[in-house]
Every structure is written in C-alpha cells, then in structure tokens.
C-alpha cells in the first residue's frame, strides 16, 4: 500500500512582482483544483520589468523567503522577469522544487509551431534578457524567433481595458511587425498579457496560435507533483492565501479580474 508524504498537504507558493501572476494562479487552480496555494505579490516595488538584473535578483531573494516562511512544498516563479534573470537565485534559496514560467512556455511554443516561426512578447527586461529566445533555440535550433517589447499592455490590463479601442490600437501597433515575420505561434511572455488575449488574438489573426506561459507552467507543476508524489490527495476545497507588500485593498480590487474569481482577504506580508 502506497503512502502519501506529509508534504503533499502543504501549499504551493507562487510569487510575482505584482498582480500579473494571478493569471498563473488561475491556471493552477483550473488544472489542480485541490492544491492549496500561497501567493505573494511585491506590489510595493512593482514593476520588475524596468529594473536592472541585479536589483531583480535582490528582490527575488527576498520574495522567496516570504513563501518559504509559510512552509510551501514548491515555488512557482510567476514573474517572467525573475524567471529570466534570477531563477538561479530562487533555486538556491527555496529548498524545495522551483518552476519558472519561461521554459514551460518555450516548450509549449515549440510544440505548437508548425512552420517553426515563433514570436515572443514581454516586458523590456524579459525581451532584452533573450531568455525565451535562448530557451526556444536550445529546444529546437531550427526555430526562427522574433521578440518584441510591449510595455503598454501592462497598464491596459490593470485598467481592465480588455475590449477598449485604445487596447486594440496599441495591440495592432505592437504586433503588426510580428505578422510581417509570418509567425505561426506567439508566446504571451508576461503574466498580464492573458487578460488582453482577445485583443492580441485579433491583432495577429486566427492563423497564429497563442501560448499562455501560465497554462504551460501549470502543466509542468502537475507533472512535477506527480513525479515527486506530493500532489495533494485531498478532495476538499483548496485554500488560497494572498499576501502583498503594499496596499491590500487595491490589489484585491484589480486582482479579481486576473484571477477570475473573488479573492477574499488579502494581507500585508511582514518583513519586506
């Protein structure tokens, strides 16, 4: 008779520079509805995408400590910027399995691309790091990759302008050059971007497959939980806890659009 390790009931820890990582939590809860989750958003220091790599690495080291203090069994780095420039910092400090969003997203893009022409969109830091481009090329060197920064997507997503004319115009302006490159797959390389999925899809056309790195990450988390035999066997309703470094009320108001459900109490994390 097999036994389930005690760690199985412990929560999965997820962190991001702010609100965007809630789209990863949304993907996790859809795929793993009985897994308890602790989320930390570093709202006092957002955005990370415009910070230097050294500063991001310092912040990442502090962020992971917020989660490990809550006895998590795994850490999911929902921030593309941290995944790009500081994943090694998290891995050294976590003491538990760590999953970033870039490698799962890159793997999903390679699988989805028929003509081997992949587009990447993300923040300035993520794009300039070449993390997605390098990951795709390591998986399949024959894939052609083109990347583009789309910084205005973040405030538009937080404003809730999912179907606003301004969003449509910005999306066309950003993405038209990628359509000229004849891409057949586009990676949403920022956790805010799934909120604007409709506008992005309309801008690139129905022939382009959109890859949500959050959904790909959730699939990888499921695989690792199964492999380590630490998937939660409970059938009870999962417990979701949310912590931020600044202004819980504002986070809850905007965050519910990203999470797709009510959040309940959001608390201020101490010591950061």
Class of secondary structure makeup: alpha/beta
**What is the share of helical residues?**
40-55%
Low-confidence stretches: none
Radius of gyration: 18 Å
What is the count of helical runs? 12
From the spread of the alpha carbons, the general shape counts as globular
What's the short story on this structure?
The protein has 272 residues and is an alpha/beta fold.
What does this molecule look like?
The chain is an alpha/beta fold and 272 residues long. It folds into 2 domains: 6-100 and 215-268, Rossmann fold, CATH 3.40.50.1860; 102-213, 3-Layer(aba) Sandwich (Rossmann fold), CATH 3.40.50.1860. The protein has 12 helices and 10 strands. The protein has a 6-stranded parallel sheet with strand order 4-3-1-2-9-10, sandwiched between helices. Strands 6-5-7-8 form a 4-stranded parallel sheet, with helices on both faces. Helix 9 (165-180) packs across helix 10 (197-204). The radius of gyration is 18 Å and the shape is globular. It starts with 11 loop residues before the first strand and ends with a strand.
Q: Could you list some keywords that capture this structure?
A:
272 residues; alpha/beta; Rossmann fold; 2 domains; six-stranded parallel beta sheet; four-stranded parallel beta sheet
Show the helix and strand layout.
Elements lengths: L11 E5 L5 H10 L5 E5 L11 H16 L5 E4 L2 H6 L1 H8 L3 E3 L1 H11 L4 E6 L1 H6 L1 H9 L4 E6 L3 H7 L5 H16 L4 E4 L8 H8 L4 E4 H15 L12 E5 L3 H12 L6 E3 L4
Helix pairs in contact: 1-11, 2-4, 5-7, 5-11, 9-10
């Amino acid at each position: 008779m097999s036994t389930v390790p005690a760690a199985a009931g412990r929560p999965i820890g997820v962190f991001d520079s702010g609100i965007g990582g809630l789209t990863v939590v949304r993907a996790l809860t859809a795929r793993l509805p009985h897994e308890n989750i602790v989320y930390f958003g570093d709202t006092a220091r957002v955005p990370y995408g415009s910070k230097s790599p050294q500063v991001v690495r310092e912040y990442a080291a502090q962020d992971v400590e917020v989660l490990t203090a809550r006895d998590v069994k795994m850490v999911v780095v929902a921030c593309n910027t941290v995944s790009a420039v500081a994943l090694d910092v998290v891995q050294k400090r976590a003491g538990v399995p760590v999953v970033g969003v870039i490698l799962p997203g890159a793997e999903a893009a390679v699988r989805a691309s028929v003509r081997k022409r992949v587009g990447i969109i993300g923040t300035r830091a993520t794009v300039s790091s070449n993390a997605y481009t390098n990951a795709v090329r390591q998986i399949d060197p024959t894939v052609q990759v083109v990347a583009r920064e789309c910084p205005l997507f973040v405030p538009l997503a937080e404003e809730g302008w999912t179907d606003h004319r301004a969003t449509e115009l910005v999306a066309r302006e950003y993405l038209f050059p990628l359509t000229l490159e004849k891409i057949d797959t586009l990676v949403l390389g920022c956790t805010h971007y799934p909120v604007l999925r409709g506008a992005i899809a309309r801008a690139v056309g129905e022939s382009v497959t959109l890859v949500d790195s959050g959904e790909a990450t959730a699939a990888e988390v499921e695989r690792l939980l199964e492999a380590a035999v630490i998937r939660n066997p409970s059938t009870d309703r999962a417990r979701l806890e949310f912590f931020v470094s600044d202004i819980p009320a504002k986070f809850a108001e905007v965050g519910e659009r990203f999470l797709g459900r009510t959040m309940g109490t959001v608390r201020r994390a101490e010591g950061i």
